[in-house]
Amino acid sequence: MTMTRRSVMVMGAGALVAFGLPMRASAAAEDAIAEFTGGADMGSEGLTLTAPEIAENGNTVPIEVDAPGAEAILVLAMGNPTPGVAEFKFGPLAGSHSASTRIRLAGTQDVVAIAKMKDGSFVKASSNVKVTIGGCGG
Amino acid sequence: MADNVKPRVKAPRKASAGETVTIKTLISHPMESGQRKDADGNTIPRSIINRFTCEFNGETVVDVTMEPAISTNPYFEFEAVIPDAGDMVFTWYDDDGSVYEETKSIALG
């Protein structure tokens, strides 16, 4: 392929769109975090987020969250068009404060989990997942 | 209502009092995210299950709020404490107002 002025312009516009989208999504993710924590500081001990390092198919990425003593765990995909994934609330009969499920990831990005502990403190864990084929359709 | 929605639950039939058991649930559902477009470029409207709850004898085990980022055929695995014999009720709430319910009885033994 030869590089004409037009093709360079198109690629530049494409790059702008590609970089612009995650920035908007991350602003939404920060709003979601602020809503969940109320702006409180987050620790880093006591929450395990298990996610694969490389996911071949972004349509079904298995994840597991485990936070002993947690009341609720919020899971966010920072690079998705809508960052929210799920919020697990544990009741009195929860055997352990852990759960696993399968999620969609639009591309390579950080998956973030935030646990609300019984004493009102918050714990954050994040894991980078490389996605070979994105899972947002289109 | 989405077609062919079928809940499947794997729970033990028996447990000893106070035992922690692992529960696995799967429900067949397309979980249309609202991001995809059809062949004509029209956005396919969102149609997902937005909430899942599990209760044992009326007490909550888990209550999950689900967003479009949950995969097709949502799968959950979690643990529950069984204090007594009783019924475990699983409920899924669809965007369109449908409610899918499944009950498993667990005996002491």
Mind explaining what this structure looks like?
Chain A is of the alpha+beta class and 138 residues long. In chain A, strand 8 and strand 9 form a beta hairpin. The longest helix of chain A is centred in the N-terminal third of the chain and has 33 residues. Chain B has a single domain, classed as Immunoglobulin-like (Sandwich). With 109 residues, chain B is mainly β. In chain B, a hairpin with a 2-residue loop joins strand 4 and strand 5. At the A-B interface, strand 6 and strand 7 of A face strand 3, strand 5 and strand 6 of B.
What's the CATH first level of chain B? Mainly Beta
Q: Helical percent range of chain B?
A: under 10%
- Assembly annotation: heterodimer
Overall tally of structural domains of chain B: 1
Strand content of chain A: 35-45%
Low-pLDDT sequence parts of chain B: none
Task: Provide the CATH architecture of chain B.
Answer: Sandwich
Work out the helicity level of chain A.
Answer: 10-25%
Query: How would a crystallographer describe the biggest sheet of chain B?
Result: 5 strands, mixed
For this structure, the CATH topology of chain B is Immunoglobulin-like
Mean pLDDT of chain B: 92
For the biggest β-sheet of chain B, the strand order reads: 2-8-7-4-5
C-alpha end-to-end distance of chain A: 26 Å
| Gap from first CA to last CA of chain B | 39 Å
**Nearest-angstrom radius of gyration of chain A?**
18 Å
Tally the helices of chain A.
1
List keywords for this structure.
heterodimer; A: 138 residues; alpha+beta; 6-stranded mixed sheet; 3-stranded antiparallel sheet; 1 helix; 9 strands; 24% helix; 44% strand; B: 109 residues; mainly beta; Immunoglobulin-like; 5-stranded mixed sheet; 8 strands; 0% helix
